[in-house]
Amino acid sequence: MDVGYILLIAGFLIVILSFAFLIITNYNRFQQLKNGAEATLNQIKVALKKRLDMLNELLESVQSYARFERETLESITKMRTEVLKVSSPEDIQKIDRESRRILGNILVTVENYPDLKTSQTVQKLMDAVKEIEDEIARHRYTYNNIVQEFNTKIDTFPSNIVASIFGFTKMSYLQFEEEITRRPELRWSV
Predict the structure, then answer these.
(1) How distant, in Å, are the alpha carbons of 28, 51, 89, 102, 137 from that of 41?
(2) What pTM was estimated for this model as a whole?
(3) What per-residue confidence (pLDDT) applies to 18?
C-alpha cells in the first residue's frame, strides 16, 4: 500500500470520528440542558405548591378579620392540586398569576387591619411567603439561564445541525407577572 493512500484513509477516518464526536457531544449537551430545565421546572412547581400552602394558612389566619369569598379558598385548593400536574411553562405562569392575585388580596386585607400586621402568626407566615418568593425567583432565574443556553445552541453552528437532526426545538422562557409589574411587598412598618 502506498503511504498517500494510508494517509488519505487515516484523514477520512479522523474526519468521520470528529464528526461523530461532534454529534455525540452536542446531543448529550442538549439532553443535559433539557433534563436540567425539567428538573428546575419541577422545583418551581414544588415552590409554588409551598406558596399556595402558605396562602391557605394566611387565609385561615385573616378570615376572622375579613370575609373572603368561598371561591378564593376553592381556587387555592384547586391550584394546589393542579400545580404538580402541570408541565408547561405557560400553565405554571397561569398558576403563579392567580396565586399572586390572591396574595395581593390577602395583603390588602392585612394592611386594613393593624391587629393583623402585628400578629406573630401572620408575621411568621408572611416571612415564610417571602422566603418562598425568593426561592421561586432563584429557580426561575436558573430555568431561564438553561433555556437561554439551549436556545442559543439551536441557533448556532454546528449544534444547530444536531438540533435539526434530532428535532430539538426552542424552549419557552418562564416569565412571571412580577417582571411586568411589581413584586408583592411582604414587609410592613408597624
Answers:
(1) 20, 15, 8, 22, 12
(2) 0.80
(3) 94
